[in-house]
Structure of EGF domain-specific O-linked N-acetylglucosamine transferase:
Amino acid sequence: MGYIFNLFPSLAESCKVDSNCVYKNIIEHKSCWGYEPGCNKNVSYHVRPRCPGDHRGWVKTKKAQYDTFYTQADFGYVKDQIEELQVMCEASYLHDSSLECSKYLRFCRGRNLMLNFTGLIGRGDNLRYKMDILSEGQIGGYCNYYEDRLKAEAEHMSALQSWAPEMVNFIKTPYRPIFDEKCDIVIEKPTYIMKLDATVNMYHHFCDFFNLYASLHVNSTHPSTFTKDNHILIWETFTYDSAFKDAFKAFTSNKIWDLKKFRGKIACFRNVVFPLLPRMIFGLYYNTPLIYGCERSGLFHAFSKHLLHSLDIKPQIRSNDKIRVTLLSRGTTYRAILNEKEIVEALVKVKGYHVQRVVYDRTVPFTEQLEITHNTDVFIGMHGAGLTHLLFLPDWAAVFEVYNCEDPNCYSDLARLRGLKYVTWEKKNKLTQQDKGHGPGGASHAKFTNYSFDVVEFLRLVEVCAAHVRSRKDFKNFIEASTKKALHEEL
């Protein structure tokens, strides 16, 4: 709440004079996310980057290394989006429309805008990733339209890279859409319109959720920004469904819409946001170019805490100091651990470990998966989307990507962004590949086969992770507090 008071001082003043305000004790506490004007680094979000690695060959100084990482992957990225905002259509009076967008139309927001969906009649339901859902004149508003400015930012003309395919159709309407009653339906609540990546894949779908969270910060112009009384409209006519759909509960308390709701209608929105997209060039986190030697993004940490808090996922009280080891087993054709049973049996015998083997599929509710993950100290899995769960591990945890299948950066970078210890297989002579792999077109490919691993070497790498966890002060503090609480409850 301190972040909100700092961002909106009028709320702090209201709290001071409100006898029922329960946040009086933090009104004077100066804290900020990091992107606000005048935000001092000393009071910015408490999780900040570390840059222990070499900076030479990348930038000239350690400070430049830190600043580069902060801009690439932390709240500095949000700050850049805010500073890049340009007015594309300017309101003159209260009931006029307005539109502003960041560079390359990666993020836009508007007021009193019209979207004409009459062109959807007869087009069927397969509109995913289509760039012609709107045609010229089917989005607009009554405002001073700077057409050349908008179209100069339309370089990234791709479905999931920008809002250019939609915004190039913007026009100045000869009427005020809502005030002059030109709409078939008026949406009063703030609406976030989203173009989604692959919803069956956790890595790609969480690019959607992460960018929605980052967009809340870019859009932080009103105290209601982080409330859930809003609408989310998916930019396709398929009814949304996903094994990860519960994640949307962290952002809205209302039903998820799709374009079928507005087919054949002219819809007008009081407040509408077109959020950052999942496959932006130099975006987050699919195309994030990370400078070498830095780790731990406060933005990724805050996203993790936002989702866990919103879904009421809590750390479990522990009765001992055993390291909780979770092995994520793959129920897929490829990238299985062929001697998994032998490895689990060996892990169970290690004194000081509490070991569980899990399969995260549709039979396990997503919130239950998060509960397991968030209460894991060492998370083990083969290369695959399930490793995206590392975003929701405790801060002291370690990730063991058993084998990266010749894709070395994907999950090591994600672990780096989250600020976690990362380990992967080091000795190729101690693993056995089942066959050459069955890639597209019959080509050999490391991702399309299965593996067995030397058990002793496997245990050694798990112990590297466990030793890291044991060395962490926050883990020790948690265990101490946890055992005291457990003892107190027994008494």
Notes: The first helix runs from residue 2 to 7. The CA atoms of residues 199 and 205 lie 5 Å apart. The chain has two domains: 83-274, 313-490.
